[in-house]
Amino acid sequence: MAVTALETEMVEACVRSLEGTLDATPTSSWTGTDPAVARDLLNRLARVEARISAHKMAAARVLEKARQAARDATRGGADGAGPATTTSTSSTISIDFGGDRHGAADLVNTATRIEEQTTHTEAALAAGEISTKQADVISRALGSLPDGVTEAQRDTCERTLLKDAQKLTLKDLRARARRITETYRKTEDEVDADEDAFLRQQEEQARAKTSFSMWDNRDGTYTGRFTLPEAQAVMLKTALDALAAPHQNVGTVNAATGQMDEVGFGQSYPQRLGHAFASLVELLPADRLPSNGGVSAVVTVNLDLSTLMGGLKAAGLSDGTRISAEQARRLACTAQLVPMVLNGRSLPLDLGSANRYFNQSSRRAMERRDGGCTAPGCDRDARWCEAHHLTPHAMSRTTDIRDGALLCTFHHHRVHDQGWTGRINPDDGHVEWRLPGSSTWHRNRRYRP
Length: 449
Ligand SMILES: [Zn+2]
Ligand SMILES: [Zn+2]
What we know:
5-stranded mixed beta sheet; binds zinc ion
């Protein structure tokens, strides 16, 4: 398959003319464009983008083939393997793309898959009829057709998907692709079985790709990266969305003004999700985590009795991480962490034991009494609440619900942060809060109008 000089000239001329046109058109020339025209042009630009990506893929394939040829030559020949031949095409390309290895690998993989699995998809992409993502979905679908599919059946599947890509969203196209064998199967059962086989294969691959890593930024934060199978990712996303949902009528009483504060105002969606993730970690059921070879999987908070009683001495987690007194009191307050209360000389006074926690029945009684977070204005229901001990010194002695109040994670922070005083109203037995320096008791009327 000799490439003629003419063909090389043609692609060079194509890229040169694109460059020339773009050079001659500054983005400022869009200013003042009629919106209807801009919309049409934007749509056409998206198609141009798809067409260009078809060319990028063709170029990536040239590189990939050259690399494979070089590798095969080294393997077969007497020459030792040079470092250049072991570098993957994607990392070669990514150098020219500001180090975007993920993007480069995607390009090479899709390019290779389209060539191996499809017949008409590349032409459709080059003509601007489908997008790169649609081409990706179609090539994946054809790549996972069951064994024994004939060339003619394959062809029908591809043509059907190319046609459907014109009218389906990406998500719907993916769903369609999973059941594409209905173009040639005789019964619904067979299509069901094909889809199931596809999903099983996809789940197995997902398990192989699953990973999690996080690293210490050494500034009091960690950053991480993970790959999760779809089902677990959806579970995580659903939980985070629920935890991050803007409270409908969330207020806390502002210490300075005595007025209700808006909460979460000005936080971006990723920030809200971040806080939701932190809350989720604290909600992990300590009593249901496995122990790791006899070592507890639960972090212990080690704090002095004076800290527990309101002092300012920092505390530690079982791995040596230092945390503020406020954070320690709050964590010691939740049932998910075991506080180790020390006297001044670091001798344990009280190892939090099962009976210091509000047990199931007192927790249920509190849920019934409080209905949800007891902070004024908060709309978190009981599922997302932690049990706060109204009197810290009683922590190790009682599981009486007259010592407890439900608070969402956010307000639990607030209560410890700002030093709210809580009480059970002597007349009707409901939880009330008072801010430092204030004499007014506030209560959440949301659940008890
Ligand atoms: Zn608390
Ligand atoms: Zn709350």
